[in-house]
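Supplementary Note 3. Input sequence used for the single-chain structure prediction.
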Amino acid sequence: MPSAKARAIVYAWLALGVASVSAAAIFIRLADTNPVTFATYRMLIAAAMVIVPTLLRARGELFGLTWAEFVLLSASGLLLGLHFVMWTASLSLTSVASSVLLVTMAPIFVAVGSHVFLRERARRMTVAAIAISLAGGVLLAFGDLDWSDRRLLGDGLVLAGAITVGAHLLIGRKARRTVGNLPYITVVYLVAAASLLAAALASGAPMLGLPVETYFWIFVTALVPQAIGHSLLNWSLDHLSATKVAMAVRAEPLIATLVAIPVLGETPPWTVIPGGALILVGVFLALKGESTTAASA
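The predicted structure, written as discrete structure tokens, is reproduced below.
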């Protein structure tokens, strides 16, 4: 049974991971470039950042992966790359609030997938947390409705991105049962980067001659939301269920929406306050349910 101090440490790192990934939408908007270009550079830089520490601290684990583990990690990497392309593209078609709201609907798919594939039954408190959080998301989105074709296309891409990142988390939860965090993120990031680079070359996405500001924001995104944020979320999968990690990320819409006010000048609707409150209540109940489960284990 983990101690209260150990659980507090896990939640602290998880909170930092959530805060880090919440900045991604802002950085993507500031970069203002082709979505495939952005996603490719993001993963190439992130992969480069984790290779050295992995070779220094977990070389044996990395080269000791079984074929089955490598296939599992490769599938996770492909899904992550696909997620980033679709989500990045959506941010040029819809608002930050709508984009981060819909992409963090992943807990629905993760909860169902965890029950079906991982045999992780969702507790009643977790189900209630998901319902409350989704209600907050619907309320938050209500004040941001726009039924234009452009907005609907963007929202559709985000929803597809939520499904792929949910599948990515499920595979990660299964893989982390036998694979350490550093080998896991290294293979996943490398596969995602390689697949995205192939897509960029095939589609003719511009990779050179971009504005200096674009390269800067790409690097910041690779460092903060990716190398720090997603790596901490993947680390959390070794200590918390995939559903709980996905639920924690539900705080992203509120954080990103609030940050978009001073940085992008996007004024959120009045629904951000009650909707954001419900989202945070859902996150709190999900993590409380995790603590109760751990304490009784």
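The chain is about 80% helix and 0% strand. The mean pLDDT is 80.
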